[in-house]
Amino acid sequence: FQVKSENRKTIWNTEEVPEGSEFDDTWDPREQPEYQILFKQCVGTEDVFFGMSRKDPSTACCEDMVIKIKLPETKYSDITLDIQDKVLDLRTPKKKLLLHLPYCVDSKNGKAHFLSEEETLEVTLRLSRKFDFINFL
């Protein structure tokens, strides 16, 4: 058994550290807000009525992921949001959410808007999976 490492004094390899672990802060006393993950797909009449495409209701045929985060007593200006390919990191003065996403997303082209009446932040992210070219011809 031979260990391949650039530096023999390191105790782990960078490939062993999961993406987003640099955001983990176990000592942070802020509570985690309620959130919901939904999936969204574009369908037309040919999909719904005629079944002409190969789309089905599974998440494999969805193009977007929508994350709804309840943030009571929060102003839009107090929200800090950082999106990586597999991680959503949200922080407010009272809440903190570190969410490891179920699929890779296009972190550069997401949308977020705050619904002040519902006290909810709605984040829409385009899914970025290896074989989407098969599902979305």
From TrEMBL:
GO terms for cellular component: cytoplasm. Residues 32-126 form the PIH1D1/2/3 CS-like domain. GO terms for biological process: axonemal dynein complex assembly; flagellated sperm motility. InterPro entries: DNAAF6, PIH1D1/2/3_CS-like. This is PIHD3 protein. The gene is Pih1d3. GO terms for molecular function: dynein intermediate chain binding; protein-folding chaperone binding. Belongs to the PIH1 family.
